[in-house]
Amino acid sequence: MKQKKAKSGPGNDPLDRVNFVLDEQQGEEFTDLLANPPAPTQKLKDLMARKAPWED
Fold this sequence. Notes:
- It comes from Sphingomonas sediminicola.
- The structure is a single chain.
- The protein is built from two helices and no strands.
- With 56 residues, it is mostly helical.
């Protein structure tokens, strides 16, 4: 019997997938948040400006 090679790459790994169920109102709120994310806070800006530990 010949084995098939598993596809690799983004979206092909079942562990990369997340399923969740939203009702209509929750779905609209989620979509609105994706379309209009909150402005970054100073704390987030500071965090993003730091060098990653593995970049030493």
